[in-house]
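ok here's ABC transporter permease:
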Amino acid sequence: MFGLLSPNPPGWGGNLLRGLFHSLQIALGSFGIGLIIGTLGAYGKLYGGPIVRDIAAIYTTMVRAIPELVLILLLYYAGTDLINRLFEALGYSRVDISGLVAGIVVLGFVQGAYATEVLRGAIKSIPQGEIEAARAYGMSPSLMMRRITLPAMLPHALPGLANLWLIATKDTSLLAVVGFAELTLETRQAAGATKAYFLFYMAAGALYLFITLFSNAIIGRVEIWARRGMPSVKEAH
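and the structure:
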């Protein structure tokens, strides 16, 4: 059933691996977009004007209040239709938006709301004396962000960001409802064709578990690197 090379009868292992590859593509892309949106949103909430703060607050509140599946359906179908209507209004022909691109953008939009709050909390954890010293030294906002804010907030943000990455890997399964061939949809098709439901869903669970364990190992190394020179939790006590 899992044969990768045997064409007779065809195995489903290749389909599961292809779905896994698509899931990782979506997770990486959406996590990256979420970080960009989250950084802008966090700075907007902390340092923006009243309008910027209100827009950021509405965005994070709505995304976190509406179930992710509803948001995915709304953005995936209504969003792509809105883009095509805009193109038609401007005199251009309709475009066929790739399911991969649409999935990355949709999940990235959702991730951005949660990343905003994670990064906002991490920035607020930075001692104000460091920020005031940078301003007194005459650093521009962009230079202060690169040299002070980002390095200082990273250790505080990593646990929350690591959790968001793991959520992103699992949220890719929600795209199965819109017919995108990620791991969950490939698994469902394989199980339906072979009637070996337990076998294939256990295989999919094992693949998701492998992603989590591998991610945890990488995240652990990144946390050690980010906290270099800082006292450990035991030392702090």
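+1. Residues 13-47 form the longest helix (35 residues).
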